[in-house]
Amino acid sequence: MNRNGSRVGRRPARALAICIGLLVVLAGCTGGTTNAPGWTFGPTLGAPSAGTSSAPASSGPAASPSAASPSSAPASAAPASASPAPSSSAAVLDGTPKPFSGRMVPQVLLVDGYVSMYMELDNTGSEPLTFLNTLYDIEPTKLYNPTVAFPWTAGGSAVVTRAGRFFPSPAIVQPGDRAAYVMGGMEATGAGELATPVANIKFCPTRGMDDLPSVRIEVKDVAWSTSGGLTTVRGTLVESEGSRRPDPPIVGVAFFDKDGAFVGAVVDSRNGDRMQPKSSRPFEMEGRGVKADRIFRAEAYAFVS
Questions:
Q1: In-domain check, residue 57
Q2: Residue 272 domain-assigned (yes or no)
Q3: For 244-290, how does the pLDDT look when each residue is reduced to its tens digit (9 = 90+)?
Q4: What letter would DSSP give residue 44?
Q5: What is the pTM of this model?
């Protein structure tokens, strides 16, 4: 099974009822914190139409992942360059003054009763941004894990979860660059057709933030195989920054077909032992909900929070 180590969001029933049926949204903030309770929603951005198939992402690779090509042998990974800043009206959002502007585009997949998601988080403005959970301001632990709900079109929720993370997290995204949020296959409750997901995510100016950035871990030699609906991913993790943080790395691998459509992901929130400074080691993880016969390439991310 997928070792996501997820913590299912247990918000009050009233708050959950509010979020069901709404679109994925992205809210802007001014950089200061508030103590206002409840869920925060902003203007709808880049939301796909309802359905179980994934919506095409905007063109260009995600910011600084390790990319792998399909191969019978482990593929060599190389960093991808960030896509250029989108132009158009997306650069100015309702109630959001320039130069701070952001956009997100989710791709959601339901396969064999498992829900997975890949979300692009684009900085469409001219200053650095940090993408956060909107509950960050009121939770004492200041979680970066976004609460995401996946409603059925007929009512009720397939999944309400905090599985998955921003890569890196906190995601300080430069103008024109992109962060990614990857959620591995989560077992759905019930069955039916998925409506558009609800994500509590906002973008904020990074000025004045005292958060300690995560340590990026390079992912190399990514290879995968699937048997009985279970996808196994192997590769090599490389710690190049000399960090002595005690936590194991968080690893996420998202898969795409030849047209760039998302076809599933495997995420492990505590992969193996901690990374020693300036060290490397192999990793292995597994998960369900991947359309393995359509995999053409992979994007791999890892970090230590």
A1: no
A2: yes
A3: 999 999 999 999 999 999 999 999 999 999 999 999 999 999 999 99
A4: B
A5: 0.71
